[in-house]
């Protein structure tokens, strides 16, 4: 995920960087929620 964000930034593609960052944040949120549910 991070590589996709960085690649988009290096390429100067703001729309792709934004989409990659949103996908990353949504994925991270889901992973953290799953982790918290498993540990509660």
UniProtKB/TrEMBL annotation:
Pfam families: FCD
Keywords: DNA-binding, Transcription, Transcription regulation
Domain of life of the source: Bacteria
Transmembrane stretches, start-end: none
Domain GntR C-terminal, chain residue ranges per copy: 1-26
Protein's recorded name: FCD domain-containing protein
Organism, as annotated: Salipiger mangrovisoli
